[in-house]
Design a protein that fits this description.
Structural class: alpha+beta
Number of helices: 2
Largest sheet: 4 strands, antiparallel
CATH topology: Alpha-Beta Plaits
GO cellular component, one term: cytosol
Family: Belongs to the P(II) protein family.
CATH architecture: 2-Layer Sandwich
Radius of gyration: 17 Å
Strand order of the largest sheet: 2-5-1-6
Keywords: Nucleotide-binding, Phosphoprotein, Transcription, Transcription regulation
Pfam families: P-II
Helix content: 10-25%
GO molecular function: ATP binding; enzyme regulator activity
Length: 112
């Protein structure tokens, strides 16, 4: 099993979610995040005062997948979140050694 984590732009969430649901993903976790990459921060002026915005709002998506689905899901996330500009995000996967569905006690891929 793999845990796929994606950091994307907030405005791309609906497109990514719809693409994952179309593929057959039945569960995912979405949380808010703030960060920066190569685009770094920028300065803004608010009521005459200039300030630096260092961290950009992002969305973190986590999906647990079987080994067979993992690369397909990564490709779907990348394709549906890509705008072609800096700050589109990152996607990575890590190995998951065990998962348990709390309600039923199912383990492994059955718990997905």
């Amino acid at each position: 099993m793999k845990l796929i984590t994606a950091i994307i732009r907030p405005e791309q969430l609906d497109e990514v979610r719809n693409a994952l649901e179309s593929y057959g993903v039945q569960g995912l976790t979405v949380s808010g995040a703030h960060g920066y990459g190569r685009q770094r921060g920028h300065t803004e002026v608010y009521r005459g005062a200039e300030y630096t915005v260092d961290l950009h709002p992002k969305i973190r998506i986590e999906v647990l997948a079987s080994d067979e689905q993992a690369y397909d899901l990564m490709d779907i996330i990348v394709a549906s979140s890509n705008t072609g500009t800096a700050g589109d995000g990152k996607v990575w996967m890590i190995e998951v050694y065990e998962a348990v569905r709390v309600r039923t006690g199912e383990r492994g891929v059955a718990a997905i």
